[in-house]
Write a structure and sequence with these properties.
Elements: H1 13-36, H2 52-68, H3 72-100, H4 110-117, H5 135-155, H6 161-178, E1 186-187, E2 190-191, H7 193-210, H8 212-236, H9 251-266, H10 268-276, H11 279-290, H12 292-310, H13 319-355
Antiparallel strand pairs: 1-2
Helix pairs in contact: 1-11, 1-12, 2-5, 2-7, 3-5, 3-12, 3-13, 5-7, 6-7, 6-9, 8-9, 12-13
């Protein structure tokens, strides 16, 4: 039997680069919700295909976290708690702010509380006083962490299942482009197709950093394959607007997303150098990475407030007002994210370390 892995080599500049990519990805999320995807549609909508970078980063970090954990149960408890506890806190704070200060929330029902508890707000947007569509990512990542845990356990000895599942998700994506199977993959109102497909991106992050030396040698071939697959899917796609492919990802979306991930890996040095030219830009992205969860959750509330209470609504035809709106949303979101991150981390640490005893 092979010697079990105890960790994978995500240290130094690799770790910093993952943080940088996370920061860039979170910034992209905020910009998309500010209107980045519609200013030159349908071509600007290709920015949606950058979303799987977050799954890629999470997969790399999660696999290493599992390998460093004492047991599978410890890994699952720590990983899920670090995601779920901040989510509940941020949603609760948002609801309280909306109810007491904005007077914009109806009475809570059992069904609403159940959907909040099960992170199913993306399927029930009317249950929140402001849009939180991005919560689908948290819903997916929780399911992905649970279903990949057995794979990680087996992956201590062999990661052969990682590429096998990635290829399977590609095949499912091909089928999805021909037959909309995603619409039938719901369980008790929960979308299971999204986590199924995004498991491929998640495992791609785990696989790359577990086999970095080998995969770096063939990355050019993988990039070319991604270009070929995307080009073929582009020829046969009914609607090139990427917005119509993100809810139930097909091979058109999946192949472009893998191409983007591979390019971020391949162009690592160039991206780092480009970002480092202006130190404040790198500092901003690293700040966004450090406060990624808080920014991810709170920016939509800030955006809703700016739109509905300050009165800066549609700015599609006004570049000046668009820039003002972008600056206000980012500044307020960043300011609020600092205490929110500190608060959620303290609550999480109390729960994990003092009450449960996990370190």
């Amino acid at each position: 039997m092979n010697t079990p892995l105890s960790s994978i080599d995500i240290i130094g500049d690799d770790r910093d680069y993952l943080d940088l990519v996370r920061g860039i990805s979170i910034t992209r999320v905020v910009l998309v919700h500010l209107g980045l995807s519609w200013f030159f549609s349908p071509y600007s909508d290709f920015i949606h295909a950058f979303m799987p970078l977050l799954f890629f980063v999470s997969g790399a970090v999660s696999y290493n976290s599992y390998l460093r954990s004492n047991s599978l149960s410890v890994y699952l408890f720590k990983r899920l708690s670090s995601i779920y506890i901040p989510y509940i806190l941020v949603i609760s704070i948002s609801i309280l702010v909306s109810y007491f200060f904005l007077k914009n929330y109806s009475e809570l029902s059992v069904d609403k509380l159940l959907n909040i508890a099960t992170v199913n707000l993306a399927e029930k947007p009317e249950y929140m006083p402001y849009p939180v569509g991005q919560v689908w990512f948290i819903h997916s990542i929780i399911i992905i962490i649970i279903i990949t845990a057995p794979l990680f356990r087996y992956g201590r000895y062999s990661i052969i299942l990682f590429p096998a599942i990635i290829i399977t998700t590609l095949l499912i994506g091909i089928l999805q482009q021909q037959i909309n199977i995603g619409k039938s993959m719901f369980l008790f109102g929960h979308n299971l197709y999204q986590p199924l497909i995004n498991t491929g991106f998640f495992l791609a992050g785990s696989l790359y950093y577990a086999s970095k030396t080998y995969l770096d040698k063939i990355i050019t071939i993988l990039i070319l394959l991604s270009i070929v697959v995307f080009s073929l899917s582009f020829i046969f796609v009914d609607n090139i607007n990427m917005y119509h492919h993100i809810y139930a990802p097909d091979i058109y979306y999946i192949s472009l997303s893998y191409l983007i991930i591979l390019l971020f890996v391949y162009l690592k040095k160039y991206i780092e150098n480009a970002v480092s030219i202006i130190k404040v830009i790198r500092m901003f992205f690293m700040f966004m990475s450090k406060n990624a969860y808080s920014v991810f959750m709170i920016h939509s509330l800030v955006l809703w407030f700016v739109h509905n209470k300050i009165g800066i609504g549609s700015v599609k035809n006004n570049i000046g007002m668009a820039l003002i709106k972008i600056v206000i949303v980012f500044i307020v979101t960043c300011i609020l994210s600092i205490p929110l991150t500190n608060f959620t981390n303290k609550i999480k640490n109390i729960f994990l370390y003092k009450l449960i005893g996990i370190k």
